[in-house]
Specification:
The chain is built from 10 helices and 13 strands. With about 325 residues, it is an alpha/beta fold. Bound molecules: acetyl coenzyme *A (ACO).
């Protein structure tokens, strides 16, 4: 039986910071409201970089930390809802930027759960012996889809990218992954593609922004995150005290806090960086895993859980020994 493991991780966020205080200049909000409702203090946004630029820097950092020859990578998956082009995908252009041949590269869209969906696909493609080493990336420029005049959503999001190199292993390190979806027929969370236009009028289509039913998404997330963690524990016959650390999608500090209380654990076991970056969608989980590893909150051989939810609706979780 062939197994998989993490070889390296990397992440990148753009330099430009927008603090909560700065947001009060263009929407009716306050630092106190944003911090108390979400835990976010500031977020990063691009000025002139593309999603590909963010992905490339995170990918190079992950490859560097993996210590493997990058030419061994034969699979690239990029999870994003903010690709620079309808086509080619970020993954295809990334392959070219990294100078890699003989690679299958494609993008997936599962919103904030996208990185763990990519992990599921790559893990199974390596375990099936079709591929050996995969570069998986979550990269987003959510500021592209943000309506900067809508205080209900604009305070929540930020830009960034995270990456991971996984590959074949003799020991079983990426132990279990859950990925699931439920069609969002109530449209709790969406952003439309440009409308189809009458060709005779030649109107220019405009890009839609993010729409969200915040309280319903909050309820869904608070229920699904602990449920996914409990399911992973149960089917691997583990109890929560055997887990060293939990890296959850950074969407709202209160959702993470509620999950911790539901699981009967302290917040010291939960990774938090939402204060610095806000919700970076598919980039959130890989940035958080990379920072948890680099800050030694997750050490070699530690058992950790990661969990996410997002538009779709989608949700996912993974049990990994680092
Ligand atoms: N500043 C000040 N007031 C605000 C702001 C703001 N930035 N945003 C909303 N409000 C106001 C609203 O207008 C409303 O006022 P009203 O009662 O007079 O109408 C009130 O605050 C809303 O309060 P609550 O509903 O109590 O706010 P809540 O505690 O639910 O927090 C929040 C709102 C932060 C959006 C929360 O619901 C949430 O985090 N939901 C989940 C969001 C999420 O995780 N999204 C995932 C996106 S993932 C993806 O795939 C992109």
């Amino acid at each position: 039986m062939r197994y998989t493991k993490i070889y390296g991780t990397g992440s990148y966020v753009p330099d430009k910071i927008i603090t909560n205080e700065e947001m009060t200049k263009f929407v009716d909000t306050s630092d106190e409201w944003i911090v108390s409702r979400t835990g976010i203090k500031e977020r990063r946004i691009v000025t002139d970089q593309s999603t590909l630029d963010l992905a490339e820097i995170a990918a190079n950092r992950a490859i560097e930390s993996s210590s493997i020859d990058k030419n061994k990578i034969d699979l690239i998956i990029v999870a994003t809802v903010t690709s620079d082009y309808a086509f080619p995908g970020v993954s295809n252009l990334l392959q070219s930027r990294l100078g890699l041949d003989n690679v299958m590269a494609f993008d997936i869209n599962a919103a904030c759960s996208g990185f763990l969906f990519a992990l599921q696909i790559a893990d199974k493609m390596i375990k099936s012996e079709s591929y050996n080493y995969a570069l998986i990336v979550g990269a987003e420029i959510l500021s592209r889809l943000t309506d900067w005049r809508d205080r209900n959503t604009c305070v929540l999001f930020g830009d960034g990218a995270g990456a991971m190199v996984i590959g074949k292993s003799k020991t079983n390190k990426i132990k279990d992954i859950i990925t699931a979806s439920k069609g969002d027929t109530d449209f709790l969370l969406f952003s439309k593609n440009p409308d189809i236009k009458d060709p005779y009028v030649n109107e220019i289509s405009s890009q839609d922004h993010i729409h969200m039913n915040g309280s319903e998404v909050f309820k869904f997330a608070s229920r699904i995150m602990p449920k996914t963690i409990k399911k992973l524990l149960e089917r691997n016959k583990l109890n929560i005290n055997e887990i060293n650390y939990i890296v959850a999608h950074q969407a709202n500090l209160r959702i993470i806090d509620k999950s911790a209380r539901d699981l009967g654990i302290g917040m010291d076991k939960m990774f938090i960086n939402i204060d610095k970056y806000g919700n970076t969608s598919a980039a959130s989980v890989p940035i958080a895993i990379d920072e948890a590893i680099r800050s030694e909150k997750i050490k070699r051989d530690d058992l950790f859980l990661t969990v996410a939810f997002g538009g779709g609706l989608t949700w996912a979780g993974a049990l990994i020994e680092y």
